[in-house]
């Protein structure tokens, strides 16, 4: 009888186990068109416990932009980093394809659609071998490049990913058939193996590696939604104190203004080009929480108030309250390579802050930053949890002084952040033939951006920060060996730069750099960046791919060694903020030289613009655009000529009026005796007009007279370019009646007239102006000093 009861009891236990297993499998395998949430879908056998981190945690790290070339491989699902199908990076016949709100193709309409999910990556960046592709819907996928199909069943493919003979990984896929009634969607590309719950930083091949304890093994193919991150990525990021999410968030050149336009979990991919890519905030917060790292967030430059408040509310409610938050508005608004700067300049002009686009852009930056800081403080009910960061310019302490000073901005700021990158004189780099020469330039005190010069600038910023009562941080930093004139990795001097980054001496430079930063008073340093492939645009990663061994990555090894030998120390408290601006000074004397004209000894380079001066003061018109009404200029001289170069950015060029000033043209003003009267004197104040496409210079309104012979002696050329035109003019000093010498002075101004639709001109910008009458008031022109070197 007892044996019978035992059999019944065992049968009930078995049935209960089967029921629980069925419910579990149902939860794991049930499909959904949307991307699965980051919630754990299966009950863990034990809480996830990270290993103890013993590094000093005085250094932070920048993430990477999400894309198929990202060698940091942040996600366990490789398709997260693919480009959106709509970008058609494979150049397929996709014009008629339609898409749903998340970017999945709903109807091919006779075409094909595809994307890349790996590109130009080192062979060891991911484990070679088999990967499982999961998808939903009725359709067919074809694989390309290094991705090869092994087996296919409905909703599940097995592929291999192995680098070709070039030792580089490229992988793509194409949707060749999709049923519009049940379109193919929710693609996931997952590696073999998984993790053990007690060590999510290490990939294992199977459950045997987890000690055989039930439920400890989490296979990637079953638990990708809760694992989310590549274990190797977590293992790399764990060693740093804080994570700067600016690159990963996709804010660079991103015009997103509304909360509805933010990166979303449900989107087909998170990679892409500028404006499309971006990791959802939920994922970034999860990464910070999982690794227990402080988080650095950047608000997009065009984000409206709702965007700012919703962002703040999510961080408030979901980021571990033990973690510190660094809050920064946009990124490098002074950097003209980004549209962030143009945006702030336009907003400053709209607000009537002044005529100087650069200056009003800086001021608007401080206004909007303070608004964002105030909004976060309101959402959080205080500012104990976050640090208000104002971005600086590593080579320009005067910029930091300006932005901290505008309307006493320093009183609403906790930290000034710069990006100290060390390198050297680019001319010297181009002439170098050995790596030894690269290192010599990088350490030479008189080499531009060399390590000694950069640390000197750090010290000046540290002094400024102390005077204003704020901390000095680094939002980025590290080596900066790059030649922006190149476009291919094999172009000189790029191979020398790559070799220098792989040289043990680079590790020694990093040690000196980090020690110098701390000695100067710098606090948190956010190194740039997570693993990246060396390319023509730089070798920025601490490693070249996520799986690169420490012994092959001297920068990474040096950083870990530095943290291990520089344990955390009690930071000096931030000085109290002064009640008054400590560096308030009188305005610059307008009678002092604003620029110098340097001699032109090389006849082949007289028009080569080496030190451009910006033309962006809006004197006429209501719109200003760096692609339609913007310019830069430069002057050089010798005993016979002024060599005038003006580069104009103009989307449309018009020449249909009798007066060149009503068309696209350039005006050059010069007060040859530097008398600086309040009006044009008709004697030594000249106004020369160079019409775009014209063959003869003419005199502008109220110019001092010039003879026909003198006018004809002025030679010039206006060459059309794809995005505007350039003026190159030879102006004889004899035509202007002067014979300049070293240390002489003249006053000058430069204008650009713009006409986009025929008839009267539509806009005018200039170099120097305090008001819109500047061109008839030589007192507002800039004083130029003739230099002998």
TrEMBL record:
<dbReference type="GO" id="GO:0004553">
    <property type="term" value="F:hydrolase activity, hydrolyzing O-glycosyl compounds"/>
</dbReference>
<feature type="region of interest" description="Disordered">
    <location>
        <begin position="571"/>
        <end position="595"/>
    </location>
</feature>
<feature type="domain" description="Carbohydrate-binding">
    <location>
        <begin position="610"/>
        <end position="787"/>
    </location>
</feature>
<dbReference type="Pfam" id="PF06452">
    <property type="entry name" value="CBM9_1"/>
</dbReference>
<protein>
    <recommendedName>
        <fullName>Carbohydrate-binding domain-containing protein</fullName>
    </recommendedName>
</protein>
<dbReference type="GO" id="GO:0030246">
    <property type="term" value="F:carbohydrate binding"/>
</dbReference>
<dbReference type="GO" id="GO:0016052">
    <property type="term" value="P:carbohydrate catabolic process"/>
</dbReference>
<dbReference type="InterPro" id="IPR010502">
    <property type="entry name" value="Carb-bd_dom_fam9"/>
</dbReference>
């Amino acid at each position: 009888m007892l044996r019978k009861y035992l059999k019944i009891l065992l049968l009930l236990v078995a049935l209960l186990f089967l029921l629980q297993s069925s419910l579990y499998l149902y939860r794991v395998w049930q499909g959904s068109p949307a991307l699965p949430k980051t919630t754990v879908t299966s009950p863990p056998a034990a809480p996830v416990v990270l290993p103890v981190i013993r590094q000093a945690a005085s250094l932070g790290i920048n993430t990477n932009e999400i894309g198929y070339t990202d060698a940091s491989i942040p996600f366990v699902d490789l398709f997260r980093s693919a480009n959106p199908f709509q970008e058609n990076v494979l150049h397929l016949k996709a014009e008629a394809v339609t898409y749903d709100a998340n970017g999945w193709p709903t109807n091919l309409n006779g075409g094909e659609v595809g994307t890349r999910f790996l590109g130009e990556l080192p062979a060891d960046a991911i484990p070679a071998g088999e990967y499982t592709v999961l998808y939903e819907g009725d359709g067919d996928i074809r694989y390309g490049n290094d991705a090869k199909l092994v087996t296919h069943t409905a909703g599940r493919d097995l592929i291999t990913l192995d680098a070709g003979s070039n030792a580089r990984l490229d992988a793509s896929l194409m949707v060749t058939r999709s049923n519009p009634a049940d379109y193919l969607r929710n693609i996931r590309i997952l590696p073999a193996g998984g993790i053990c719950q007690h060590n999510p930083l290490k990939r294992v091949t199977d459950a045997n590696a987890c000690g055989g304890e039930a439920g400890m093994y989490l296979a990637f193919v079953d638990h990708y939604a809760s694992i989310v991150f590549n274990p190797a990525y977590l293992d790399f990021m764990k060693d740093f104190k804080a994570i700067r999410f600016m690159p990963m968030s996709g804010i660079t050149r991103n015009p997103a203004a509304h909360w509805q336009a933010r990166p979303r979990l449900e989107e087909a991919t998170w990679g892409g080009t500028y404006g499309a890519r971006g990791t959802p905030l939920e994922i970034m917060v999860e990464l910070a929480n999982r690794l227990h790292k402080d988080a650095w967030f950047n608000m997009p430059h065009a984000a409206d108030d709702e965007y700012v408040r919703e962002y703040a509310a999510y961080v408030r409610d979901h980021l571990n309250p033990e973690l510190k938050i660094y809050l920064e508005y946009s990124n490098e608004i002074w950097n003209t390579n980004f549209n962030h700067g143009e945006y702030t300049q336009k907003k400053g002009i709209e607000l009537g802050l002044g005529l100087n686009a650069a200056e009003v852009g800086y001021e608007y930056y401080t206004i909007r930053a303070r608004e964002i800081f105030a909004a976060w403080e309101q959402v959080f009910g205080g500012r104990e949890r976050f640090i208000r960061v104002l971005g600086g310019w590593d080579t320009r302490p005067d910029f930091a002084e300006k932005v901290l000073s505008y309307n006493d901005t320093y009183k609403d700021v906790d930290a000034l952040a710069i990006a100290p990158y060390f390198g050297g004189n680019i001319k010297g780099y181009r002439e170098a033939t050995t790596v030894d020469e690269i290192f010599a330039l990088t350490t030479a005190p008189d080499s531009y951006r060399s390590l000694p010069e950069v640390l000197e600038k750090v010290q000046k910023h540290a002094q400024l920060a102390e005077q204003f009562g704020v901390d000095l941080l680094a939002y980025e930093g590290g080596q900066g060996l790059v030649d922006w004139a190149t476009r291919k990795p094999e172009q000189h001097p790029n191979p020398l730069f790559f070799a220098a980054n792989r040289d043990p001496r680079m590790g020694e430079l990093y040690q000196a750099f980090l020690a110098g930063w701390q000695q100067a008073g710098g606090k948190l340093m956010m190194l740039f960046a997570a693993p990246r492939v060396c390319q023509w645009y730089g070798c920025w990663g601490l490693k070249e791919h996520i799986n690169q061994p420490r012994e092959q990555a001297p920068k990474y090894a040096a950083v870990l060694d530095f943290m291990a030998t520089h344990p955390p120390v009690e930071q000096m408290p931030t000085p109290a903020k002064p009640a008054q601006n400590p560096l308030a000074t009188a305005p610059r004397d307008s009678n002092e030289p604003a620029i110098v004209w340097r001699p032109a000894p090389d006849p082949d380079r007289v028009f080569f613009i080496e030190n451009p001066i910006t033309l962006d003061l809006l004197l006429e018109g209501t719109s200003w655009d760096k692609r339609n009404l913007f310019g830069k200029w430069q002057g050089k001289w010798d005993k016979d000529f002024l060599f005038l170069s003006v580069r104009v950015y103009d989307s449309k060029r018009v020449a249909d009026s009798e007066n060149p000033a009503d068309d696209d043209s350039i005006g050059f003003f010069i007060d040859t005796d530097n008398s600086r009267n309040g009006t044009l004197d008709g004697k030594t104040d000249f106004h020369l007009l160079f019409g775009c496409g014209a063959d003869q210079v003419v005199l502008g309104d109220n110019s001092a007279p010039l003879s026909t012979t003198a006018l004809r002696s002025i030679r010039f050329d206006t060459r059309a370019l794809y995005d505007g035109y350039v003026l190159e003019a030879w102006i004889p000093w004899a035509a202007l009646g002067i014979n300049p010498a070293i240390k002489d002075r003249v006053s000058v101004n430069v204008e650009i007239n713009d006409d986009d639709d025929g008839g009267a001109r539509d806009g005018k910008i200039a170099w120097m102006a305090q008001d819109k009458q500047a061109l008839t008031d030589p007192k507002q022109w800039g004083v130029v000093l003739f230099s002998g070197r």
